[in-house]
Amino acid sequence: MLVHICCSVDSHFFIEKLQYEYPDEKLVAFFYDPNIHPYSEYRLRLLDVERSCKKLGIELIEGPYDFENWMDAVRGLEYEPEKGARCEVCFDKRFEVSAHKAIELGESTMTTTLLVSPKKSQEQLISSGEAFEETHGVKFVAFDYRKNNGTADQGRVAKEQQLYRQDYCGCLFGLSMQRNQQQRLMDEMFSPISKQILPASIEERLELYSRRNALEEQGISYRIIKERFYNYRLIRSLVKVGTEIVPSYPLFYSTINRTSTEGKIDFEIDGQFFLNREEVRFITLDTFNLLTSSMYKNTQELMFNAPSLETEIALRTQLSDNPFNTSAIIVVDTIPTDKISLVLETKMYEDTREKLILL
Predict the structure, then answer these.
(1) Which of 34, 111, 144, 198 has the fewest CB atoms nearer than 10 Å to its CB?
(2) CA–CA separation, 233 vs 167, rounded Å?
(3) Does residue 222 belong to any structural domain of this protein?
(4) Considering its fold, how many domains does the chain have in total?
């Protein structure tokens, strides 16, 4: 039987049930989910599915990540709600490729772990599956593992196995609507030009779960916990001296009261140059290099290849002598003597992040 897989939270529980109820059935897992966006999220979910299938002892095949074709298929349905017409097209797209893969492998039956997801319509899934059974000749089997307290059992298994528990279904449009309803920043879509791994980002989780896999291979015990903190995202920033835009780099947690301010350098203390308006200070790249043991040639290089976040926060604490300081600290090549115009649009918000603890 070919088992289309959407994510480890659904698939681990679903496949465990299949293995228990059909111990003689050969199961082949097929991960085909071009709807998942951004690509880093796709990689993270695949990483966890690979671990899950390895634990369960079944073969896993990865399908193509043909995101552009998926976008073409759902064009015009961007604002459809969850369980609406866009989901139907999405199921059709994934089932069609899954049915062809089953035929290619010589499998006569297929199913999908989407059936166990409480966020999906079983009626839609069964309708799509049966349609492809008629046209492709691959029998679609709809297992209902939600009943008899199945959803609660699924949550228990996910917690016991320390699976990656994503908080959105996967597609860009569903994510956008969900974050709008929650009145939350869609920070999953931030990709800084600095290449820095941001806190509570998909990239940070990808590193964490990769490390988890490595620890398991080494037989090292661990625990994944959650912690609350104040997160930060830089939306845009610009420094203009007179009419000239100069390369600049705001340190993490840099904020101002509004999105823009103007002024001139008023005084200097220990290599920090303070603007005469707002709580803004500037440091030179030489000072940045000295205090972080870096060797950046210019600020533009820093902008496109920033150090680790831990390095930046340590520098901020050193400069301000206050771990709660959120004043703007801006790195520039040289300290301007003319009038400075600063644009700094940011967002600070309560958030949670996962943390890996060695036991």
Answers:
(1) 144
(2) 19
(3) no
(4) 2
Examine the domain organization and report whether 110 and 164 are in the same domain. yes
- Residue 109: name the closest of 50, 28, 52, 32 by CA: 28
Contacts of 47 (CB under 8 A, 6+ apart): 164, 206, 209, 210, 213
Q: Per the domain annotation, does 246 fall within a domain?
A: yes
CB 337 within 8 A of CB 230: no
Statement to judge: residues 175 and 234 lie in one domain: no
Rounded to 5 degrees, φ, ψ at 149 are 65, 25
Residues 6+ apart with CB under 8 A from 273: 265, 267, 281, 282, 283, 335
Q: What is the structure's pLDDT at 246? A: 98
Residue 136's domain is classified under what CATH number?
A: 3.40.50.620
Let me know whether 52 and 157 are in one domain: yes
Between CA 351 and CA 163 the distance in angstroms is: 20
Q: Are residues 172 and 274 in the same domain?
A: no
Write the secondary structure of 216-263 as one string of H (helix), E (strand) and C (coil): HHCCCCEEEEEEEEEEEEEEEEEEEECCEEECEEECCCCECCCCEEEE
Do 166 and 243 share a structural domain?
no
72 exposed, middle or buried (CB, 10 Å; 0-12, 13-18, 19+)? exposed
Tokens of 143: 């297992």
Q: Do the domain assignments include residue 190?
A: no
Structural contact between residues 253 and 316, judged by C-beta atoms closer than 8 angstroms = yes
Distance CA(326)–CA(11), nearest Å, equals 43
- Domain of 52 in residue numbering reads as 2-184
More confident residue, 279 or 289: 289
Q: What are phi and psi of 126, to 5 degrees?
A: -65, -40
